[in-house]
Design a protein that fits this description.
Blueprint lengths: L1 H11 L3 H7 L4 H9 L6 H10 L5 H6 L18 H6 L33 E5 L5 E5 L4
Antiparallel strand pairs: 1-2
């Protein structure tokens, strides 16, 4: 992983110190990981994933795939609650999962012909708070 960390720092044009500061870890931690003395823990990897959402964490951990996520995995666009209430449900979400090529189900999948409407939206903020918007017109 130390080689991939070095590749990422080069691609982002970051020094070890800048990177350490950006993910709130001790600067020496980065030096130790790059030198192979230490292996990064879960909190380190989680901090990297949060700070650099375009980085493909699977590549960072295992070396599989590409360094950066594809454009279909881009972070969600922020939408105001007023605008969200006017949008179709399928436009409110970003698909961050690779499409499934085939699937086998134990039971036949039931499909409904009823129209589906949004009844509730939860918005989570980075400070740990959230807001709930209900569309129940009772």
């Amino acid at each position: 992983m130390n080689d991939r960390l070095q590749q990422f720092l080069s691609a982002e044009n970051l020094t070890q110190s800048q990177f350490a500061d950006s993910i709130n870890v001790a600067r020496a931690s980065i030096s130790h990981i790059l030198a192979g003395r230490n292996k990064p823990g879960f909190e380190f990897i989680e901090s990297v994933a949060r700070r650099y959402p375009s980085l493909n964490i699977e590549w960072f951990i295992t070396g599989r795939g590409k360094m950066y996520k594809t454009s279909s995995e881009a972070p969600a666009v922020q939408v105001s609650p007023a605008a969200a209430s006017e949008m179709p449900a399928e436009d409110l979400f970003v698909d961050r999962v690779e499409p499934i090529k085939s699937i086998t189900l134990d039971k036949p999948r039931q499909t409904s012909t009823k129209e589906k409407n949004i009844s509730k939206i939860l918005v989570f903020y980075t400070d740990g708070t959230f807001e709930e918007y209900n569309n129940n017109k009772e």
